[in-house]
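tool=predict chain=A
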Amino acid sequence: MIAAGLDVGSRAVRLVICALDKGRLRYLGSGCADSQGWVKGAIRDQKAVAKSIVAALREAESASGVALGSVVAGIGGVGVRGHNARGALELGYERVVEQEDVNRVMERASKVQMLADRMLLHKFPQDFVVDGQPGFRDPRGMVGSTLEANVHLITASDQEHTSLVGAINQAHLLVEETVFEALAASYAAVLPQERRQGIALVDIGAHSTDMVAYYGDGLYLASTKPVCGDHFSSDLAHALVLNFDDAETVKLEFGGTLPELCPANSYVELPTADNQDRREATEMAVNRVLEARAENLFEFVRGELARVAMENALLGGVFLTGSAARLPGLLDVGARVLQCQTRYGLPVGLQDWPESLSGPEWCVAAGLAMYSARLRTQAKKEEDSEGWLGKILR
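tool=predict ok
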């Protein structure tokens, strides 16, 4: 059984192909290609995006020896939003709560009024209330006359979702399901016992930062913010009077977020045009600019956690994923601002996962492949449970 995850980012397309064998997910191959067709985090040229996907697909198929037909795809950016909702159901009389009742109250909780361009991406139960008594994770078997559900809903822009699925279809791939990218990264990087302690995962991309927060077994926060990897480069471009590409080069070669560790006499030669005089900046000055943006990013994270009263509840810490998370010193700034353990989110639980892909930038693609395996396992269980008569009548 093949499971594949496709992370279509605005800077890079990453594809992971795995095999589900005897309950274990085994890595088969992967592909990565530069991303084209994006403008400020939104798809503007579907054909160019499709071409990038095809390039990653060919590399992954060649490495794995598998001809791929479908994927689970990630979606993120400021078009994705999360919020809490509540639904209530009168059972009519005091009786045992059954699965059908849970399904009905979840459906009511998810029927919130949305704008015309919004679609429901995910719904996650937080807890249930039986006859006014809160805190039940599974109300089945309880006796009561009313049932309420607290859920977290994740919605996406219908237009952006359609553009993404259309580009993937143009690359001759079917989309099994679309998953919020920070959620997918948490599948790959965070163990179930860590989620129960209270964790946040922050996925820092080129054009947006996505985050989720768990407490117990419930998802309590899904959020996005247009503070991202490109902002670090833009800040340097303004501070050092450089164009964006040159600022990106300085960031990658000399950048960090801990200016106090830079020697006072360490200088960086700045890129210049042919007819300009040589210019320099201190490494400390470069790092001060990046430190300020890093603090701004984690202040946003802290504010979002405070919005759901979780700023002091992260016993499991904060996980950083995404290509922009590699900026030196970012973990230290995160720990300082958030006052909790901060570490890289790295893919775990995949057999034969190569060391070369053990970085935070591959977490989303790995998590999407895990999600695909989960969907296929559930489908197989449902098919097996139908029995021979159900298969004949289908």
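The two ends are 23 Å apart (CA to CA). The chain has eleven helices and 18 strands.
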